Structures are given as structure tokens and as C-alpha cells.
Amino acid sequence: MEGIGQKTEADYIFDKTIKCDVCGKEFKTKQVRTGRARFIGTDDILKPMYEGIDTCKYDIILCPHCGYAASQRNYGHLTAKQRKAIRENVEPRFKAKENDTDTYSYERAVRRCKMAMLTEMVTGGKISESAYLCLKLAWIYRGEIEEAQNTGETDERIQMYHKYENEYLEDAYNGFKQAVATEYPPIAGMDEMTINYLLTSIAVNLGRNDEAKQFGSAILTSRMANAKIKDKTRTVLEAIKNN
Ligand SMILES: [Zn+2]
Known about the structure:
two-stranded antiparallel ribbon; binds zinc ion
């Protein structure tokens, strides 16, 4: 139920016109009005949380003409060779016509994120960027689980979303572990301590307690880690003890 003056999700977003970096055509994409949505914090796997809107649904920019998709952070940062790869490998196979709606559903957010994965694959992006997209999908499924619980969806459906969340967390975990061994920070925009924290927390989620403790102790014993991230690490490690 909506009260008078209470904001709906549509109040937090706007249509932004973008010129595609690959095909040159213009299109509209929905973006969050950054000044309007109040940031609450991040959850254990660093999903950003805002009051009144799940901003994770709106991070991917997708060109409806050629299928090029990327997160806002990476959109438009392509070489000529990568543009060519998208035109040759994505555009001919892309035929998703999306309806014009006020907001994006979770289903649509999943599809957009998977298109960004296809772009990553075709352009030979870094392993960390693919891992980050897997993490984003896990964030999106977390949102979908919450929505499904609020709207009284069946347990089977909710279990299915949990399964997807776990699968993408697993992919994100393996990707980030590989990235830590082969890339220099910042990794997908995160510094070394943040990525160690993330690995700790995902490992806890996946029930890999020994690995979680290993990543966690690297933070707790580091002089580079600040008090805030140490606290967050202790909190996620507590979940192991309580099991
Ligand atoms: Zn395009």
C-alpha cells in the first residue's frame, strides 16, 4: 500500500539518452537519480542498498539496436577491435526487443546483466570484470528473492532463485580468486583489502569455512586494513562460529 507522498520506484529513476559506442545509434536507458535515493549501506557481499529502490537492476546499459551492454563504470571504454568484435558476434544474434515499462523487473535486469557478460566474453575482458558481473547477478537474485517473499511467491520459485544466487556467487568466487593471482589492484574497481573481504564473505556464503578464515585473517592481521573493514570481516566470520 502506498501512502500519500510516498515515493514509488519510478520516482527514483529517469530516462537517459545515450549514443551507442558501437553502432552509433541513440537509445534511452533507465538510470537512478543519485541525489534522490538514500544510501543505506552494503550487505555482507557488498550489495549496495538504497531506500525505496534496488539500484542493482539499473546498472547495466544495453543498446537495444546492437546488443552492446556494459556496466555504467565500463560503458564506452572500448577499443576499435572490441567494437568490431561486438558488431560481428553480438549484433547479428541479438534480437531482444524490450517493452517500454516504467521500471525494470528483476527478470529484465538478469537479461541485461547476461548481455553484459556476452559483451565481456566477445571482447576478451579481464577475468575480474566477468567475476564482477557474476557478483552483480547474485545481487540481483538476492533482490528477486526479497521481492518474491514479499509478494508471496511459491517456495519452489524462491528456492530456484537461491540456487541461481549460489551458482553466480560460486562463479564470482572462482573468478575473483583467479583475478587476485593474475591482476594488480584495483581489481574491478576494488582495492586489495576490499577484494580480500569479498572473498572472505563469499566463502562464508558458500560454506567454505577454511578458505574464509584464510582470506579473513589476511585482513585482520594487515596494517593496511582500516577498522571498518576489519569489523565487517569479524562480523562475517562470526557466522561460521554460530553454525
Ligand atoms: Zn548499439
